[in-house]
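Notes on consecutive records. When two proteins share a document, each keeps its own sequence and its own token line. Never mix them. Below: protein one.
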Amino acid sequence: MPKTEMDECNICNSKILSPVSNKVTKAYTSLTTKQRALKILMVLGDCILVGLQPILVYMCKRDGKFEFSPVSVNFLTEITKVIFAIIMLLFQSRNQKSGEKHLSVSTFIQAARNNVLLAVPALLYAINNYLKFIMQLYFNPATVKMLSNLKVFVIAILLKMIMKRRFSILQWEALTLLLIGITVNQLKSLPEGSTALGLPVATGAYIYTSIFVTVPSLASVFNEYALKSQFDTSIYLQNLFLYGYGAIFNFLAIFGTAIINGPESFDILKGHSRSTMFLICNNAAQGILSSFFFKYADTILKKYSSTVATIFTGVLSAILFGHTLTINFVLGISIVFISMHQYYSAQAKEDKSHHNKVEMTPSQDFREKESSVVTITSGGMDEVNHRVGHDHEEKQPLLPV
């Protein structure tokens, strides 16, 4: 994680967070009606894009195999996102108002240094994007989406450990219900009679599943932290760094494959079709939208949004490929929706309770106005605030809930 800027208290000589390090709190401030509408649009768009992704991957298979290199798809996806980020930066610079800070070489280099942490999720995403193709060899599209929803529970644990997020008991119960819903859908969905890496298919599939759940969960948490810790940096500039790192990692994977399998495997367009082009565009749009989730919303909302996409995936899978929507799928989806309602109902109650606690009474407001006639310096006020709230501040999480 990036180093947190600290100031020294003049009273107890302890280290306290400086205002600069609290830029991340801007992402957790109260939402306006426009911002809520934006989140709804983000969820709807994410449902469509995430729901289409496993369908397009399935359509790219020929006789149960891929005729192209999955790494080449990931590389072309990253290049597409880099081009999009550059176009948006140029558009943004042309529409800057007078007085706003323009992007220069020096500011670009400084931003690159401040956002170097984005290399971590970029590497993890490169690994995860390859695993998405591997998972399609063992499960049908609807089941892949349900398995990916296991990430919600893993992400919650990582958010609590790394970012010190707090979850109520009702929210943990909701996440547990989510796991139950996924398990109900997964029952008897594993194909039999095949092998993977010399192991029985069940063993190989479950190994891939554990990696498939853990790696992107780590990537999402690190990505959210990296984007929000540099909240004042343009989202398109941060995306340029993230996708640039991703393109580099995927190119190294292609280069390594060419060394092992021969120069002919270096042809990144080999085996591609119209379906793979649609897949690349869909993956690029999905990745761009995800960055807005991580910076302006949160990872949990992103994963619950992906959960809703399971219905879209399941219905399309049944229509296009004849996959049966079993009673397990229907029951599993029902439990997932109950889990989602319980999680966000608990969050809404907690937010309302917190708002009531911090809301001032009329008498408190009068005393506040009366005391405002006393003139003190801003530095003295910071020390007084720290003296009064010193014990409370030590218990605050690194990032806000």
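Protein two starts on the next line and is unrelated to protein one.
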Amino acid sequence: MEVFAGGVSESDRVFNACQVPVCLRFSLRHQVLQLAVIFVCGISQLSPGAYFLRRDLFPCIVTTITSPETEQFTFEAALLLSALANFHKSDAAKLNPYLRCIRETTNKDLMRKICWASDFAANAVVKAYQNISDDSPPTLGTAFGSLLWSLRPDRALASTPVDPPRELFKNQPIEACVILLPVFEFLHVNVAFHEVLVESASLDGEKKSASRISPLLYTLLSLSSYLLTHASSTSSPRAIAYGNLSLNILLGLVESDVIIRHLCQAKADIRLCRQRLPLLPAPSSWPPICALLDCCVLWLRHNLHKRLEVQSYITCVRICYRVLWHLQRERVRLEYHWQEFWRAMISLLDFLANKLDSLITTGGIEQLVQETLLVLDLALCHSDTILASPKATHELVYEVVRSAAVLRKQQQLLEKLALPQTSSRRRVSELQAHVTDATANILAVTDYYESKIGEAGVHSANAALRVVAKEIEKDGLCYGKDLHSAEEPP
């Protein structure tokens, strides 16, 4: 206030006057928008931001975005709107008019323009990753070139392929990635925005246009794969923050019945990140929900570090649970490389059990273990309505049996992390009761098929899988209590 107004006594006059050009000036609209974004982001949650709540700038921002003369400024206008909506969002959300406007608006032209600008910006972020390390799908020509490359003298003795140096990604993502903020704000509070996202994806599938830019819904999945793969590779708080933001966007997608239904029914080729080993299996012509699950697998695989992002992992596991819950509710038997998914889940549990004492966290490990066990329990309990074939069920049971030691450690881990019960922890105690039953269900399956494998005296993975398949085909998969039959997921 001293710098801009010369003192507190003059602040009302100066800051109120500063807002007039935002609404009235046209020839300098772009520069005014840029200055407004810099100012609002610069003051963050400090008191001068309250002056932007006194005058409702939402109609002006809407006009800027929807007007043909100024639609090229949509990126800055959408960013300003989301920055204003975040002013004291956590402690005074009801007093913020921009949050209310985002929640209540039904202006689909506004939303389409935001999707249009967001799509271009998100594609630019993806291209920046791809320009650093080409991870395009292999073709006959590139495969032959890779063979010749591997025969070079300096590469012939390399035992395994290596990841690109992580330092190459230290400045990623580029600044355009900030467009995820307005996407997040609209996605989480405005149902009409869900319809616009699905509408653009459906129209793209019908027209099969020659445009090389996919609709925003699919671009978000592609961008998320890059953000989640590299989130913690350079220990950059900025990259981790964007990874967390993309996970919350994915959670918003699967919490919308309109969007998740489209993701399960549509067909689309979505290019995902293949820049870090181990690579996911080559993409197939599967529904987009498979790409979303792949994004979760990439996060689970590549971000297990001593300084564990526990809350982000909880968000990721919740996304997985919500997807599986939707599949069992709608009885959608999904064709997918499920083994990669189960291994990523079990690897997380193994990491937590073995590295607990050395982790640098702010808590939440107990909840993370509990929710991961509930995902496995849901998959086993409803495998016949989630998995596409009996073979997929056999492989799931085999992965669980193969990881028996890891799963048994979870009981000890939960006992070690358990806190004394209080009346305020009633909801937590209900979750613990569910987890206790879920763990019992999983271990009962593990013990049963482990004993059958032992009785058969087999000593190879393939033979053990055949034993499991034979037992399931003979008697079915006998499972315990169904903990996931509620109308809505917990």
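For the record: The mean pLDDT is 84.
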